Amino acid sequence: ANDIDGRMRVAFDIDENGRVSNVRITEGAHDVLEKELIKTIEAMPEWTPALRYGFPVKCTVELPFKATLL
């Protein structure tokens, strides 16, 4: 019954080449879950960058997550 769970929000930047950087928790739940979420986001493959006027640009993405550590 020592499960750790919670809802979190994570924000990160995607640069013009699709690389993830500046990963940060914007709404936290528990330190252990937050650290794992940051590691997971940092390990993601490259994204397709945002386009503005047809050219790739840096953008910020913010996503909700729900996690449970059993």
Structural summary, described in words:
By secondary structure, the protein is α+β, with helices and mostly antiparallel strands. Helix content is 17%, strand content 51%. It has one helix spanning 31-42, and strands at residues 4-14, 20-27, 50-52, 55-57, 59-69. The strands form two sheets. A three-stranded antiparallel sheet has the order 2-1-5, covered by helices on one side. The chain has a two-stranded antiparallel ribbon with strand order 3-4. Strand 1 (4-14) and strand 2 form a beta hairpin. The chain starts with a strand and ends with a strand. The mean pLDDT is 92.
Arithmetic mean of pLDDT: 92
Neighbour order of strands in the largest sheet = 2-1-5
Helix content: 10-25%
Number of alpha- plus pi-helical segments: 1
Proportion of beta-strand residues: over 45%
Overall radius of gyration:
14 Å
- Taken from the alpha-carbon principal axes, the silhouette is elongated
Helix-and-strand structural type: alpha+beta
What's the helix and strand layout?
Elements: E1 4-14, E2 20-27, H1 31-42, E3 50-52, E4 55-57, E5 59-69
Antiparallel strand pairs: 1-2, 1-5, 3-4
Keywords for this structure?
alpha+beta; two-stranded antiparallel ribbon; 70 residues
Q: Short description, anyone?
A:
The protein is an alpha+beta fold and 70 residues long.
